[in-house]
Amino acid sequence: MTPSGASIASIAQTSTLFAPPPASLSLLAHANITLYTRRIGEVVVFKIKDRDIPIVHRVLKVHEKADGLVELLTKGDNNRIDDRSLYAPGQLWLRREDILGRAVGTLRYVGMVTIMLNDYPALKYVLVGLMGLFVLTNKEG
What we know:
Helix content is 20%, strand content 29%. A hairpin with an 8-residue loop joins β3 (43-46) and β4. The chain has helices at 33-36, 112-119, 122-137, and strands spanning 6-11, 24-29, 43-46, 55-64, 70-75, 99-107.
């Protein structure tokens, strides 16, 4: 997370209409869930417990309880059904702790680097080695 309250997440695949293409970086705005998610149709980024990849989908339903707890149901625009099958076993709604933020912008295809580093761990060592070599061979004037 950046000091401004925003962060970046890499998108591996897309199922939301008007969503950025796969391998994009999604810019997230972190905010209080009760402030920005009361609007159905808001595009949010969430992470399911015990899964590594965040998901970017649209809010389908907002469930507000009497005690002030706000829960969300999401759905990818290109999916026929809601996301309950993606949630953790027994989970029917997303809660505040599942939401990473609201998607506010994207950098197309820049996330390919992140995806490749996750898919090919040896590539991390190659890149670190190349950076080390660059530092050692760089001569300051």
